[in-house]
TrEMBL record:
InterPro entries, per database record: GPI_mannosylTrfase (IPR005599)
Organism: Thermothelomyces thermophilus (strain ATCC 42464 / BCRC 31852 / DSM 1799)
Subcellular location: Endoplasmic reticulum membrane
Entry EC number(s): 2.4.1.-
One Pfam family matching this protein: Glyco_transf_22
Protein name: Mannosyltransferase
Membrane topology: Multi-pass membrane protein
Transmembrane segments: 237-259, 279-301, 336-358, 370-390, 396-417, 438-457
């Protein structure tokens, strides 16, 4: 009987299943059992690897969330955390709801997530009788900690989809994972509470669960992909996630029109395939069922939030199309997403992105090629259609970033690696070694520098100033630190005063999500759009919101003084019969917050006036004292936000930092 020779060495002989004796022939039953056992072991190893990857990504994004200490755009707070605060603590909690929420343009699903987290955390901390300042600190940190989970899932599903497309033996999925981890935009934005950030996670997860088998050439395979075990459940998960993404951001529909459209075409003679009626029926049936279910949940959520039945996606389309309100927030050139959007998203990975997009346009009969072509067409379609809209932001195409990483991954791998064995083919998916190490090191270093500067040093003051104000309120009014108790109409001890006035461009800082305490009253310049003015009229074109009016310069290049004297603290008519002189009305705050460029404006109004004229607000008795200031980055494209962010004490209240500073200065003078 012929038998195979014993393997060389102890490890090889153990692997063969014997030690010290030749192998005996195995029965078919034993071979089947061994095959099953090896499959089970491989599945366990793969599952352990997946779990390890997810845990590492969760830890990484949690650190990411703690490191991001800067302000980016107000939507992070006013389109998510302010309505969430209202969900958790009620209408009298001091949350600032912008006009979009007053006109039901936004779905309540996104803020409801953070609102429930707020409420659960506050209830838990209250039951433990934790110190109010500690509770406030935890509530400030909570949203980004929760968002870190969504960010990690976006990274995870990017890697997982790349693994499904390129195969477990390929190096491209690992390249896609490294690209999403090292991308400066991901570090800067993924843990921020934008609806676009959650939309990105929902989109890539839905694409990962999508049954891409429907793109298989049905002439070569007669199997029904949606009738295979587990694929129908996967389809339902994908459709539910996609429906939520569309409700959060209606423009996400563009991606799913391409994905579902190409899938349906592939199942018809138009896609060079016999008509797959059963698969088409399943796709349409599940789309209707899952879409209707998510829509019902959304309608109920909006009914509970707004107090009446409404449909935010319709409102969103109506106001943006009929009212043309997007233009009110800025116009960008048609090529913005090509010339700035995609480069900002991909940064140093842009060359590989361009190659990936170009290569994906070529089509072969492989499933991998068809998936990549579908992703590529989704990217191009969304960029093209959004380019026709006047108002553009990089965040609007953020959901495309995971797809761009997947498309770029093979070319990133090919550029920086080579087969470890000289005999291996250049396209081998086996072990590789690095090449162009200096270029790779420079690329990684540049990404780290960009991420570090943007997350730590570019506009940190809008967040730190609120920590200062909240700490000051805790010091001055320690008996007014109830978080879940509405502000009293009569005014409690901390509510008798206007604690802070923000003379900054509209929405330059977060609001109640960082001020926390309902009794901490504050006021800021507003920027509501001209909903009350007809479209196309001269009044609409020349409309100036409150912040615009404050920063409107006169012929002498001066701004602000007239606004303060006419709108902020106007003169009240005196009584001639009693000889009462005119006086200024309006609340004067304990602290005024603004960028340092407005200091001459404030002093011209309160102290010395302009051109030898008496200061309009001199009789108000305000004596400005700087009590806090912070650096706000090396540059800012908005001249109104340049320089340090400063807090001035008005000198009208006891216990303020300015009073302490003046007493200290007085003691120094006495000693001299």
């Amino acid at each position: 009987m012929n038998s195979k020779p014993a393997p060389e060495g102890l490890p090889g002989r153990h692997e063969a299943g014997f030690v010290g004796e030749p192998p005996r022939p195995k029965s078919k039953r034993e071979e089947k059992h061994e095959t099953t056992r090896r499959y089970e072991v491989h599945a366990q190893v793969a599952a352990a690897q997946v779990g390890d990857i997810l845990r590492v990504l969760l830890l990484f994004r949690f650190i990411n969330a703690l490191c991001v200490r800067t302000f980016f755009q107000p939507d992070e707070y006013f389109q998510a955390l302010e309505p969430a605060w209202r969900v958790a603590f009620g209408a009298d909690s001091g949350a600032w709801l912008t006009w979009e929420w007053q006109h039901q343009l936004r779905s309540s699903l996104h803020p409801a997530i953070f609102g429930l987290a707020y409420k659960a955390a506050e209830s838990l901390m209250s039951s433990l009788s934790l110190f109010p300042p500690f509770k406030a600190l935890m509530l400030v940190a909570l949203p980004r900690t929760l968002q870190a989970v969504f960010a990690a899932l976006a990274d995870f599903y990017t890697w997982k989809l790349a693994m499904d497309i390129y195969g477990r033996q390929s190096n491209a999925p690992w390249a896609a994972l490294w690209m999403t981890v090292l991308n400066p935009w991901q570090w800067y934005c993924s843990t921020r509470t934008f609806s676009n950030s959650l939309e990105t996670t929902l989109t890539i997860a839905a694409l990962c669960y999508w049954p891409w088998e429907v793109l298989i050439d049905t002439k070569a395979s007669r199997s029904q992909p949606l009738q295979q075990e587990g694929r129908l459940s996967s389809l339902r998960i994908s459709l539910v996630l996609a429906a939520v993404a569309v409700l959060l951001r209606p423009t996400n529909l563009l991606i799913w029109l391409v994905v579902s459209g190409l899938s349906l075409i592939r199942l018809t003679p138009l896609g060079n395939s016999p008509l797959q009626t059963s698969t088409i029926v399943i796709l349409l049936r599940e789309s209707i069922i899952c879409g209707a279910t998510v829509l019902a949940v959304s309608l109920i959520s909006d009914r509970l939030y707004f107090g009446f039945w409404t449909f935010p996606p319709y409102k969103w389309f109506y106001f943006n199309i009929s009212q043309s309100l997007a233009v009110f927030y800025g116009r960008m050139p048609w090529h913005y997403y090509v010339s700035q959007g995609v480069p900002l998203l991909t940064t140093t990975f842009l060359p590989f992105t361009i190659v990936g997009l170009y290569k994906a346009t070529s089509s072969t009969n492989t499933l991998q090629s068809r998936i990549l072509k579908t992703l590529n067409l989704s990217v191009l379609t969304m960029i093209t259609i959004l380019s026709f809209i006047s108002h553009k932001e990089v965040r609007f195409i953020y959901p495309l970033l995971p797809m761009l990483h997947i498309l770029s991954a093979p070319y990133f791998t090919a550029f920086f690696t080579q087969p470890a064995s000289s005999s291996a083919a250049p396209s081998s998916d086996g072990p590789v070694s690095l090449r162009r190490k200096l270029t790779l090191a420079n690329l990684i270093s540049l990404n780290i520098l960009l991420a570090g500067y943007l997350s730590l040093f570019h506009q940190p003051a809008p967040l730190s100033v609120l920590s200062f104000l909240r700490t000051e309120f805790e010091r001055i009014h320690p008996d007014a630190l109830d978080i879940d108790v509405p502000a009293s109409p009569q005014g409690g001890k901390g509510e008798k005063e206007l604690f802070a006035l923000f003379l900054t461009p509209c929405h330059s800082t977060p609001w109640r999500s960082h001020l926390v305490y309902p009794a901490l009253r504050a006021r800021a310049l507003t920027c509501e759009p001209p909903l009350h003015i007809a479209r196309g009229t001269k009044e609409r074109e020349t409309y100036l919101d409150e912040a615009d009016r404050f920063y409107l310069k006169d012929a002498d290049g001066m701004y602000g003084v007239r606004f303060l004297g006419e709108e902020m603290w106007p003169l009240a008519a005196g009584n001639e019969s009693t000889g009462t002189a005119k006086r200024r009305v309006g609340e004067v705050p304990r602290y005024i917050v603004g960028f340092e460029g407005i200091e001459p404006v404030l002093r011209a109004f309160f102290e010395h006036g302009n051109d030898g004229k008496e200061a309009p607000g001199k009789e108000m008795g305000v004596t400005l004292t700087r009590v806090w200031s912070a650096w706000n980055g090396a540059f800012n494209e908005d001249w109104r936000r340049r320089g340090r962010l400063v807090v001035w004490d008005t000198g009208l209240y006891q216990g303020s930092r300015g009073e302490e500073n003046r007493e200290e200065e007085g003691r120094v003078v006495d000693e001299l």
